[in-house]
Structures are given as C-alpha cells and as structure tokens.
Amino acid sequence: IWADVLGYVRKNISEVEYHTWFAPVKNLGVQEGSLVLGVRNSFAQEWFRKHYLELLEDALRSLGAQNPQVSFQVLPAAQDALLLPSDPPPPPPTPAGRAVPASAPVENRKVLNPKYTFENFVVGPNNNLAHAAALAVAESPGKAYNPLFIYGDVGLGKTHLMHAVGHYMTERFPGKRIEYVSTESFTNDLINAIREDRMTQFRNRYRSVDLLLVDDIQFLAGKERTQEEFFHTFNALYENHKQIILSSDRPPKDIQTLEGRLRSRFEWGLITDIQSPEYETRVAILKMNAEHNRIDIPQEVLELIARQVTTNIRELEGALMRVVAFSSLNNVPFSRAVAAKALSNVFTPQEVKVEMMDVLKQVAAHYNMPPDVIRGSGRVREVVLPRQVAQYLIRELTDHSLPEIGQFFGRDHSTVMHAINKVTEQVGREPEITAAVETLRRKMQGLEDDEN
Ligand code: ADP
Ligand code: MG
C-alpha cells in the first residue's frame, strides 16, 4: 500500500519535491487506524502537516480508504541512519539472536546508509583528521588505530564517517562481517537477550565481526550491565585484532560514570574530533547535496544558506530542503531573495549574514565598476565614492572591525573611519548617496530580488 501511496504522490508533485520530501520518508505502518510516517526532523514534520497531509489523504482515498488518517513522527537519529533513500523501505531488523550468516556483504549494506560514503564526505579543516584516521582504519582494519574514537557535536558527520568505513571495507574486503549499532540498540539487544536467555547468541553476534561500529557511546554512561558486557565484547574483538570504531559527543574522559577500564580502553587507539565546518566547507557540502539531488541552484544562493546555518550539517541540509521546497511550491526560480524568504521563519532577516566580498561585489555592480578598481588605489571621485559606500555598508552589515575592513581595502583603519563618517554625514542629505545606500542595503539583506 505504501508503494501505491508513493506512486500517487509522485504523479501529483514535481520530481524535485518528491526527492526532497518523500524519498527519505519511512513507513512506520498503521497504528490505531492512522498511517504513521517517519520523517527526519521536526521541520519536516511541520512541513508535511502543512503541505502534504491532504495529498496523502487523497492518495489513501484513491486506494479505497473511507476515512483516511495520516500522522508524522520524527525518527530517532539511530533509525534515521538506517534509511535507504529512494529504495524500498528496509525489512524489519533481524530479531536479535537469530542466526546471522557467517559472511554476507549484502547484509552489511542493509544497515549502512548508501549516502554515507567517503566519496560523499566533504573534507575540510574541521574534519580532516577524523577523515584521515577513518580512511587509514578502512584500509588496514585492526592495524592502524584500534579503537578509533571519533567525537564531536551532533550533526557533524560522525555516523557518516563510520558508515563510510563500513562501505569501504564491504567493497574492499568482501566477506568481512560488519556490525553497526547504536549504543541504544546494543543496550536493548542485551536486555532482550538476558530476558529471553539468549546470551550466547548475543555474544556471537557482536564478537564474530571484523568491524564493529558503535555509535553514540556516551549513552553507556550509568548503564553498568551494558558496560560490563561491552567490556567483554571489546576485549574479544581487540584480542583478535578486529577493528572497533566508536563515536561520542564528547571525549572518553568527559563521559561521566564510565568505568575506568572502559575509559582507558577507549583511549588505547586514536581519539579524534570533528568540529563545526567553516564557511567554505559548508558551501561545498551544500553544493554536493544539490548535485546529488539534481537540483540546479546558483552558487550565490548556496552561499546565502551557508551563512545562515553555521553549526550543524543536518540543519544545513534542512535549510537547503526548505529553500528548494519554498521555490517549488511557489513556483519561483532560486534567488538570494527567495532563499532569504524561505529561511525567514527560521532566521530573522536581520540575521542574514553577508561577507565583505559580497558587499564589495554589490557596490561594484551598482556603480558598474570592477571590484578591483574600487579596492585599488584610484583617487578620483568616481572611485572614491563607491569605495566609501562599500566601507560604510561593510561596517553596517558585517561584524568586521575597522582594521579588518582596512586590511581588505589595503588601507589603515583611520582611513576607513573617515570614509564611514563621510558617508554617514551624506546619507539623508545627498539624494543619490542616500538612494544608493538604501538600495544596496535592501539587496544585501535579501529583502529585494537582486536578479533584476
Ligand atoms: P552525527 O552522527 O555527528 O550526528 P551525521 O553523520 O548524522 O552526524 O551527519 C549529519 C548529516 O550531515 C548527514 O546527512 C551527513 O551525510 C551530513 N554530513 C556530515 N558531515 C558531512 C561532510 N563532511 N560532507 C558531507 N555531508 C556531511
Ligand atoms: Mg550520529
């Protein structure tokens, strides 16, 4: 039935919309007469309620439902990792303890998100050490660093990197067994195994692998029985030179109530962190994402998005989705203004962040003059005025200090201050300058379409 619903939906919306919104949805089955769909985040949940509820109800009606009901549920992060975009929904997880085939690369793929590969991982100064370590481990599992411990805030690519190692090993060393598990499922598995008296099977499952990926290990905190069991799992694998990769939101020393013997083991190998991505890395990630989803979106729009969302990559992708959805629902082409509007519920327009180079470019376009000439040494009024306006707007619209602005223009800070004072005096008095400053300011804040 879910396939039929998707078929109906697909016929009624654009391809881009379908891929953006429906491909990642997970069918959670029917609960109390309502079709429950799992979505990635609360933003998607809200979006579905607002924009797709009726469409989905129509779809169900077309399939004969009398009183169709649909609800949306945000998937926990661990389940999200199991999503297979554009593939049929994954089969229910193997009940813990059922015999697992001794070697099965196809099995591995089932739990690895196909999107989370090394090829799809953008490397930047924020994550290059973690990336290099993961690659080293993938190339010589059990030999390079064991365990590899990756930590960093949520949404920065820890799960992605772990899966990438899994994919790499699956391809490079077919037949190797790989197990990816969140600390939460490990714990649940253990509880079930104890209750149902299946400890041997539990141990076989985790101790017979070549690569064990355990995500969000910080959740071991305070769980004594799980820590005990994990300690033995760890030892068994380690002694057999099997690779272990752990992720956490903090380094081992900061995980409270973690047994000393586990903590010290986590520190045996290599500990590496992932930080928030820099602006350039964020743009590159958005670009890759857009290409992947075959969305043709101008670079400057990606740049605007990258300035809005600075810490979390999952949120960054969410912002891109939002812009894509906004423009397709309103049937308008992508532009900085459209993006600013699409994001304005999440980020107030004042928060639109601009860079010095943007301001310079806009001013240059306004005065119909190459940016380099404005930054150059020319002293004639035709050049000096745009230069002063640019410095004035940069001071107003960015967080840069006078010396920084000076450096950007190859001048000292007192020259910049003089320029700013000059423009300040003239705004409100000189109609031409007033108009220029106002137009440019509006453009830069994304309030006006700069396409025309
Ligand atoms: P974490 O496990 O650290 O919370 P995830 O691995 O789930 O973060 O990453 C969140 C999202 O960001 C995923 O969709 C992932 O593909 C994407 N992502 C993270 N880092 C990168 C990167 N360097 N390049 C491309 N995509 C990335
Ligand atoms: Mg994760």
Automatic annotation (TrEMBL):
Domain AAA+ ATPase: 144-272
Chromosomal replication initiator DnaA C-terminal domain location: 355-423
Principal location listed in the UniProt entry: cytoplasm
Domain III, AAA+ region: annotated segments: 111-327
Region: Domain IV, binds dsDNA, residue numbers: 328-452
Highest rank taxon of the organism: Bacteria
Subcellular location(s) of the protein: Cytoplasm
Region (Domain I, interacts with DnaA modulators): 1-78
Key words, A-Z: ATP-binding, Cytoplasm, DNA replication, DNA-binding, Lipid-binding, Nucleotide-binding
Positions of ATP binding: 155, 157-159
Pfam families: Bac_DnaA (PF00308), Bac_DnaA_C (PF08299), DnaA_N (PF11638)
ATP-binding found in the keyword field: yes
Keyword Kinase listed: no
Region (Disordered): 83-102
Functional description taken from the UniProt entry: Plays an essential role in the initiation and regulation of chromosomal replication. ATP-DnaA binds to the origin of replication (oriC) to initiate formation of the DNA replication initiation complex once per cell cycle. Binds the DnaA box (a 9 base pair repeat at the origin) and separates the double-stranded (ds)DNA. Forms a right-handed helical filament on oriC DNA; dsDNA binds to the exterior of the filament while single-stranded (ss)DNA is stabiized in the filament's interior.
Domain notes: Domain I is involved in oligomerization and binding regulators, domain II is flexibile and of varying length in different bacteria, domain III forms the AAA+ region, while domain IV binds dsDNA.
Family affiliation: Belongs to the DnaA family.
Subunit structure: Oligomerizes as a right-handed, spiral filament on DNA at oriC.
Protein name per UniProt: Chromosomal replication initiator protein DnaA
Originating species: Deinococcus depolymerans
Gene encoding the protein: dnaA
